[in-house]
């Protein structure tokens, strides 16, 4: 069930966690740990960053992951190419899915766009089918906006 109060708390917690961090890698590392800790039934949470028109592995929490993803492969690549959030109920039915973890069954990937440029994507996996709902997407989009605010802050310092 949707818990708006819980979502507000997540936003406040993440903002407080990130507000005194002045290093990009530390922002990403703590946010991936925060998401893994705060969202139930998430087996992998982390970042792929845009570099040379491909995604490279960034900080994450979970099992060993793919290190590079072209924009024309997998859920992460499709998200990066189209700059749109993708929720996939069954990754085995997603054309071009990359099985970095064969136990993963559902996924949500959110683009991180800063000043009209793709910075990277936030990727969450679950071993449960149909784990990620619209409510998850809404709060995760708010959390990505908090991350963007802090990435801009440290870039401007």
UniProtKB/TrEMBL annotation:
GO terms for molecular function: L-methionine-(R)-S-oxide reductase activity. Pfam families: GAF. It comes from Thomasclavelia cocleata. One of its GO terms (cellular component) is cytosol. Residues 42-145 form the GAF domain. This is GAF domain-containing protein. Belongs to the free Met sulfoxide reductase family. It comes from the Bacteria.
